[in-house]
Amino acid sequence: MTETKTSQPSLPAPDSDFYLIHEILSEEERAILRRVRQFMETSVAPVINQYWAEDRFPFDLIPGIRELNIVGIGFKGYGCPGGSTLLDGFIAMELARVDASIATFYGVHSGLAMGSIYLGGSEEQKQKWLPPMARLEKVGCFGLTEPLVGSGAGGGLLTTARREGDTWILNGQKRWIGNSPWCDLSIIWARDVADNQVKGFIVENKTTPGFSVEKIERKVALRVVQNGVITLDNCRVPEANRLQGDLSFRDTGRVLRLTRQYVAWESVGCSMGAYEHALKYAQTREQFGKPIASFQMVQDHLAKMLGNITASQCMVVRLAQLQDQGKLKDQHASLAKAFCTVRMRETVASAREILGGNGIVLDYNVARFFADSEALYSYEGTREMNSLIVGKAVTGFSAFV
């Protein structure tokens, strides 16, 4: 009698949605998310490491992103697809699950730049700019951070705006501005010398005298995103390009509240990508005659990583629900950004540890997530600054200088 071998059961596919969070979306929303995932896995994943290594942006992918019809998700009218904040968050998470740079490019354009016009622009400005931006015919950036002013932006920008008739004269510099070396328009925030209040301006990069950009070189995180230093040298902007609804830094804060929660979603996606790559590696990498996924210490790492991801997913889902209900406050967004990025940092570090020496090689992907997480950890408010926003809300005392 011939002895037959019992086939080994197939291993579970890496899946970072342990609590089936995606099931809270409608079927229509899940269909959109599936299209995003397919695009990211078939068009972005095979090429993104090479672009990262070469510090280049994949312009050839823009038509594919355009066809997804997701730019401006969450905004109604003006050529935008509409949709909920929850769906927008899931899209951010799905983009970052494959690459945080693509997610950042998308967030800067669709969230920061378009959001500034949507929330603070006049009807005429919305009609003029948002439709071509939703079609990615015009790409924007968001110029708030300065060489000498990062966390202290609310306390006073050094970039100034001075009005002369129907023209504003802008002078100063902006730094770390994603998309700026190549995009079409910049949302520039400057302090009006007349009333000392922060105001927003739409600056057309390629046709405005006195506007120049220098690309920031030698980054070790988010290398696909092109960041720049913008210099405004007596840059003349018409009154028609001043965001009519933005009269103080408080108005700027409306945009930052939305995008801060976006970064929380993005950091969850970054954690998911690192976890899934680490799990797949552990299932196939053998040491001492068996896959390392069968070792207790590796399984402990994976369980902790999954716990970080799942807790963060639950937090950002509730955050989006608060936004859609009109209940979102600065402290809600700040707690999520601080918490999720800290958990992300722990998760990508564990992924890198599981891979051992291969964890520093781009070919295995985890190194890219590990490096990119450092940028997500810092931008849209450091952990310390966001913690102080939460601290003030819960204690009633301000600990800011």
Automatic annotation (TrEMBL):
Residues 255-394 form the Acyl-CoA dehydrogenase/oxidase C-terminal domain. It comes from the Bacteria. Residues 26-136 form the Acyl-CoA dehydrogenase/oxidase N-terminal domain. GO terms for molecular function: acyl-CoA dehydrogenase activity; flavin adenine dinucleotide binding. This is Acyl-CoA dehydrogenase. It comes from Paraburkholderia silviterrae. Belongs to the acyl-CoA dehydrogenase family. Pfam families: Acyl-CoA_dh_1 (PF00441), Acyl-CoA_dh_M (PF02770), Acyl-CoA_dh_N (PF02771). Residues 141-235 form the Acyl-CoA oxidase/dehydrogenase middle domain.
